[in-house]
Amino acid sequence: MILTFAPYGQELEIKRINADENTSRRLNSLGLMVGSKLTLVSAAGGSCIIRCMDSKLALDRTLAMKITVA
Questions:
Q1: Mean pLDDT, rounded, for 42-65
Q2: The whole model's pTM is what?
Q3: Domain spanning 3-69: which superfamily?
Q4: Which of 22, 33, 41, 65 could form a cystine bridge with 49, CB 3.0-4.6 A?
């Protein structure tokens, strides 16, 4: 399922990132890569707030729609 439609508060694993090479590299540098665990904290106002590796990150809706989780 796409990150923006994932349930809140549940640990999820990134299965696929459907983004260009530069965006994928940037996400990798933030700790978001295939196999990483994250938790969706909020998805209001057009952006998603996630918790990954003891940090909170805000992703805009366009970017969050490119991340597939399970």
A1: 91
A2: 0.91
A3: Ferrous iron transport protein A (FeoA) (2.30.30.90)
A4: 41
